[in-house]
Amino acid sequence: MAYLEMRGITKKFGSVVANDHVDLSVERGEIHALLGENGAGKSTLMNVLYGMYDYYDGEVLLDGKPLHIKSPRDAIANGIGMVHQHFMLIPAHTVVENIPFYPSKPKGRPRKDDQPTKQDSQEKLERLRMENKLLRDFLLSTERKREMDTMFL
Fold first, then answer.
1. What does the pLDDT look like over 79-129, one tens digit per residue?
2. How far is Cα of residue 50 from the mean position of the Cα atoms in its chain?
């Protein structure tokens, strides 16, 4: 029995069918890559699994038990994480203001007191020698993005 199963997942955006009865099975410890052309539904399927999209039909099972993930918070609480294809920060916020959007504990039920404080965030910025300014006011190199991702862990 697979640890995580998505059976018959169908996701529609209006009349457009993004996922049409898709199945995915993952055993414990396995790593999978979803490959396909642009518009094939890879990101949509993962957004369904992560609770960013609701699905029209099908079911998700975790360790053989039905699971309906309604939000990323539900996914995280069930040990499901996602590395997004695009850098997901809010450009109109400062670096410090963006940090609380990343849970400090990757597993378990997220709680408000698990989030880093502004002081914690400011200390992390100082260690990375970064200014606390609006994200849209500076370009992030690949290396700086990697440093920020590391900072959130």
1. 887 766 666 666 667 777 766 655 544 445 445 555 566 777 778 777 767
2. 6
